[in-house]
Design goal:
By secondary structure, the chain is α/β, with parallel strands linked by helices. It is 44% helix and 17% strand. The strands form 2 sheets. The protein has a 7-stranded parallel sheet, sandwiched between helices.
């Protein structure tokens, strides 16, 4: 079978949920597909893709709608077309709406199909401005995300869930985290994992901890992640906010970690407090490890977590509900163990690598075949 060349475009090279989604996708592609990748800068994502034998190059991918970059952006499209011809690219896939315009414009000139995977709830106007709906195939990372985009565009879009390989049970799951941060084994670790940006709700998390820590003095808080910008302005603001609360509970900010999953293994409870969350890959990662999630009713988490069965859901912005859920899990060991077991089963049923990659291989195969 002749190999089919796919170009993936992504605007940043640090590792977050959307980036790990792309690594997973490239790692599990059928041998009939050869991956190529373009981003702006070297980083953890580009290194990971090189390790997977993807052909990686770098181009400026500036904000599409900014007038000051208009000429430069058109030049990038020209370079993408040249790249496509040189490497006989048969499909271009934008991993995120921010690079959709580059993928769509280049694919149109090459007369090949374009695919856009949308990880964010960006709103109708922004998705239109970035040419998302001009792509041949648009994929949401949850039913909620696909449904919203279908309503915006007046055409039907599909969803493909994130998938992961189920993590094995460990004899001593807390060993790595406890050794790394010198946390006593009897402590209850509650934390968050992901980019530190305002919509993720880190301040709400610390407000809830402040209200329950007197009742549970064995709590330890671990925050994994950084702000996505170089200044780390908001991450520093969150650290200062936690300090100003004068928490009695120890708080660890680890920064961004390539081994975040190894640290997550030592969590007891993972909190996701986002205002909007089209999916929430870290939830299925936590559940696969037996860590119980508590998350907002913000889209994707409502499809991942069966409330009061494999985790707990709370209303966006409700500190009181978050506190109530944390108290319940800390006070009811049997319920905690049930949720932990049910979470692993949930991931094994819906969010496996096999389910996700089978759908993507079929989508890519059909898209390329429709243009041949």
């Amino acid at each position: 079978m002749m190999q089919k060349n796919i170009l993936f475009i992504h605007h940043v090279s640090y590792l977050g949920g959307a980036e790990r989604y792309l690594i997973f996708l490239v790692e599990h592609l059928k041998p009939e597909f050869k991956p190529y990748f373009i981003t702006q800068d070297k980083g953890d994502l580009s290194k990971a893709l090189v390790a997977l034998d993807a052909h990686v190059e770098f181009m400026p991918l500036r904000g599409w709608r900014k007038l000051k970059y208009w000429v430069a952006n058109l030049f990038t499209v020209h370079n993408l077309v040249s790249f496509g011809r040189r490497h006989k690219i048969q499909l271009i896939c934008a991993n995120g709406y921010r690079t959709a315009a580059y993928a769509v414009r280049a694919a149109q000139r090459l007369k090949i199909p374009s695919v856009v995977i949308v990880h964010d709830d960006a709103g109708k106007l922004k998705l239109e401005n970035f040419y998302v709906f001009k792509a041949d195939h648009v994929i949401g990372v949850s039913i909620d995300a696909a449904k919203k985009m279908s309503q915006y565009a007046g055409r039907e879009f599909i969803h493909v869930y994130n998938g992961i390989d189920l993590e094995p049970q460990l004899d001593n799951p807390k060993a790595f985290l406890n050794a790394e941060l010198k946390i006593p084994a009897n402590k209850k670790v509650i934390g968050m994992v992901g980019n530190i940006v305002e919509r993720k709700g880190h301040k709400l998390f610390f407000d809830a901890i402040k209200h329950i820590e007197a009742r549970y003095p064995d709590i330890v808080c671990v925050i994994i992640g950084n702000s996505p910008d170089d200044t780390q302005k908001y991450a520093l603001e969150v650290q200062q906010y936690a300090k100003n609360l004068k928490l009695d509970s120890p708080v660890f900010f680890t920064g961004r970690r390539e081994d975040a999953l190894k640290l997550l293994t030592g969590f007891d409870i993972l909190v996701l407090a986002s205002d909007k969350e089209p999916f929430g890959r870290v939830l299925i990662e936590a559940m696969s490890l037996g860590v119980v999630p508590v998350a907002t009713k913000s889209g994707g988490p409502e499809e991942i977590i069966e409330d009061k069965h494999s985790g707990l859901l709370f209303d966006v912005g409700s500190r009181e509900q978050l506190e109530k859920h944390l108290i319940f899990l800390l006070s009811n060991n049997q319920a905690y163990q049930d949720y932990s077991r049910n979470g692993r089963q949930r991931v094994n049923q819906l969010f496996t690598a096999e389910n996700t990659i089978m759908k993507f291989n079929d989508i890519f195969r059909a898209a390329i075949g429709s243009k041949e």
